[in-house]
Structures are given as structure tokens and as C-alpha cells.
Specification:
Elements: E1 3-8, H1 18-30, E2 36-40, E3 49-50, H2 51-54, E4 63-67, H3 73-80, E5 85-89, E6 104-106, H4 109-118, E7 124-126, E8 144-149, H5 155-166, E9 171-174, H6 181-186, E10 188-193, H7 196-202, H8 210-217, E11 221-224, E12 241-242, H9 248-260, H10 277-297, H11 310-332
């Protein structure tokens, strides 16, 4: 297989977040299948290759560059053209288009559907993010009633629901990095997550939404929004509860009911299997095999399928409109 170069702006704390952690995890899995390395392109780092230096190499057609940083993707594609490229798609809605010779690996079905509509002639694959093996239910007593992280939380959650809950329950609010999130989830009865407002304001979508999934595997009851990728795995009233349900009082009553219930909550491990490293590795191997085959033979394919350009969309719309008018005129005769 071709060597993979995973492009990230940098790997230090200022670039930290879900996107970077996801790339580092998929890199580790890819290294079990083929040769793979991290390449930075904004910040030089002693432990990583730097893109400008790497591009001086004349023998790069036998490798594949993996781009993922949404806002940087268009300029990276321009810089790398015509080398083989994969887009590892997290959030959707950045607004750029992709040429059909760039395969897309989507971390959620929501993002896969977005690109399936926007780039119908591209190779598109589904590869979910990984739950770290450390996340599991310790089956121990839980002393925190409600847990919430301020990052990505809605104004309603922080300014109305949390203050109301704090009058009756033990509520822990996190506003920074947590060293032992597994331990914290195992001490928690209910985890609150409400990111819909955050992503609407930022103009893109929830790429995967790992925290609610990690909370579920640790045995927490989850009250969450179900926007974008969260809808991949959250199923209100069956494995979670939809937060911000019409009125503050309604939310309070449902949360109180769960906290006062003696029923033990735990989803089957089979529910989480597709997000464990073993199964993701199997999917990744199949995907990389097909992508390598595509790049090995790309130059032989001459009859490219016409894309959905703005001009072609307008042309098809005009044709359809004229056909409707013709049918109406024929009917009147």
C-alpha cells in the first residue's frame, strides 16, 4: 500500500481538540496496515515532518496525503495538486467543493450524507471515530448527580438549566481540560450535552460528538441535543433523553425523575462495538485497499462522470421546467 501522510497544522496544545485527537488515533490504526506519518504545515516540530520540506521530494506519487482541517482543506488541495489526496471529513458545512478524484472518508453518517449529496461522483466511505479502550463502566457508586462541560454548551444550559439544578442536586461544571474523564464519568449519574447552538453560531456541524458516547459507555444517563452527527447513535427515550425539551420545567422534571429512579442503566457492549479499535481497523483496511486500487488505476479512466456544477444544475432545472410546461399544454389540448 501507498504511504499515508496525515496533515495537521500542529500537534501542540494550541491545536488540541477533537479533530487533532481523531487524526492521531486514526494514524495509529493506519500504522498497523501501512506506513503512515504525521506532517505539520503551520508549525515546525522536531518530532514531525513539515509539509514545505516534504514537498521538495520528487517521489511523492507513491504516497497519499490525508487532509482534514476544514478551513484549510481548499488551500491544501491547491498546494498538493496533482498528488493523491484523501479528505478525512469531520464537520460538514465549510462550503467548499471537492474534485471527484479525491476520496472522502466521513467520520459520521451525517457527514457522509452531506458529501453524498454535494459530491455524488466521489468515492465516499464511513469510518467512525474510536472510543478509547479505557472508557468502560466501573460499576461503582456515583456521587455526582449532574456533569456538564462549558465548552460547546448552549446559553440555555449554562444560564437557566444548570442554576436551577444546582438548587437541588450535586452539579459539577467543567471549564477546562480533565485529566481523568473516565473516572469522572464513572462518578456521574447524568451527563448533559447541548451543542446545537454552538455549531449553528459557528456555521458548521457537529463532526462526531464523542463525549456523549464516552459517557454512555461509562454508564451515565445522557441528556443531549441530537444535531448532526449526534443523531448517528443517540436515540431519545431509548438510549438517551433529548435536552432542551420545550420548557425549563419539563427538562427539570425529566432529570429529577431519572435521578430519583432506582433502575440501573447500562447499554449492551455490542452497541459500542463499531466504535472500538478492532472493528474500525477492519473497516480502515478495506477502505485503504479500495482507495489504493483507485489511485493505482486513476490515469487509465478517461470517461469521467459529469459533476453537479451550478451551470449543470440550472440546465437540468430548466429542462425539467420546460417538460412540465409541455405536459400541461398537451393536457389542455
Amino acid at each position: 500500500m501507498r504511504k499515508l501522510y496525515f496533515l495537521v497544522p500542529g500537534t501542540t496544545k494550541k491545536f488540541g481538540g477533537g479533530g487533532l485527537w481523531a487524526e492521531l488515533k486514526i494514524l495509529q490504526l493506519a500504522q498497523q496496515i501501512c506506513s503512515a506519518e504525521i506532517v505539520t504545515y503551520r508549525q515546525r516540530e522536531e518530532s514531525s515532518l513539515f509539509l514545505e520540506d516534504l514537498l521538495k521530494n520528487e517521489h511523492l506519487n507513491d504516497c497519499i496525503f490525508v487532509v482534514s482541517w476544514g478551513f484549510d482543506v481548499p488551500k491544501l488541495i491547491k498546494k498538493l495538486k496533482p498528488l493523491p489526496i484523501i479528505y478525512h471529513a469531520h464537520s460538514a458545512g465549510y462550503g467548499f467543493d471537492l474534485p471527484s478524484n479525491i476520496p472522502i472518508i466521513a467520520v459520521s453518517r451525517n457527514t457522509m450524507g452531506y458529501w453524498g449529496q454535494k459530491s455524488p461522483n466521489s468515492l465516499i466511505y464511513y469510518l467512525p471515530n474510536q472510543i478509547d479502550p479505557g472508557f468502560t463502566n466501573f460499576n461503582q457508586p456515583r456521587d455526582i448527580d449532574v456533569l456538564v462541560q462549558t465548552r460547546k454548551s448552549s446559553q440555555y444550559l449554562l444560564e437557566q438549566l444548570i442554576p436551577a439544578l444546582q438548587q437541588h442536586f450535586q452539579v459539577k461544571v467543567l471549564d477546562g481540560y480533565v485529566e481523568d474523564l473516565v473516572g469522572l464519568f464513572n462518578r456521574t449519574k447524568i451527563y448533559l450535552y447541548d451543542s446545537a447552538e454552538y455549531w449553528v453560531v459557528n456555521g458548521v456541524t457537529e463532526g462526531f460528538g464523542l463525549p456523549p458516547l464516552e459517557a454512555l459507555v461509562c454508564g451515565c444517563q445522557v441528556f443531549s441535543s441530537v444535531n448532526s452527527a449526534l443523531a448517528d447513535y443517540l436515540d431519545p427515550s431509548f438510549n438517551c433523553y433529548k435536552i432542551a425539551g420545550y420548557a425549563l420545567e419539563f427538562d427539570l422534571n425529566r432529570i429529577m425523575s431519572v435521578l430519583n429512579s432506582s433502575e440501573k442503566f447500562q447499554l449492551s457492549e455490542s452497541f459500542f462495538e463499531q466504535y472500538r479499535a478492532e472493528n474500525i481497523l477492519k473497516r480502515l483496511e478495506v477502505i485503504l485497499t479500495e482507495v489504493n486500487y483507485f489511485f493505482d488505476h486513476e490515469q487509465k479512466y478517461q470517461t469521467q462522470i459529469a459533476g453537479l456544477s451550478l451551470w449543470r444544475i440550472q440546465q437540468r432545472w430548466s429542462q425539467k421546467t420546460l417538460q412540465k410546461i409541455g405536459k400541461k399544454l398537451s393536457f389542455k389540448k
